[in-house]
């Protein structure tokens, strides 16, 4: 069950992140980069599960 949730969320997040990055108002230099061991899809899957 968790695997299915992950794949569904991962597919969604790949499309979402592309659109999100296109629509950001800040320049690339101003963005804060966080170093995380988990991807956003993994975090969202854990939250949903």
Major sheet details: none
Low-confidence stretches: none
Helical content class: 55-70%
Number of helices: 2
Give the tally of β-strands. Answer: 0
> Kindly state the mean pLDDT as a whole number?
85
Structural class: mainly alpha
Radius of gyration: 13 Å
Shape: elongated
Topology pattern, helix = H, strand = E: HH
Kindly estimate the percentage of residues that lie in beta strands according to DSSP: under 5%
- Span between N and C termini? 9 Å
Description:
This protein is mainly alpha-helical and 49 residues long. Helices cover 63% and strands 0% of the residues. It is built from two helices and no strands. The longest helix is centred in the N-terminal third of the chain and has 22 residues, at 2-23.
Q: Which properties best describe this structure?
A:
about 50 residues, mainly alpha, 2 helices
Quick take:
With 49 residues, the chain is an all-alpha fold. The protein is built from 2 helices and no strands. It has helices spanning 2-23, 40-48.
Give the helices and strands, then pairings.
Blueprint: H1 2-23, H2 40-48
Helix pairs in contact: 1-2
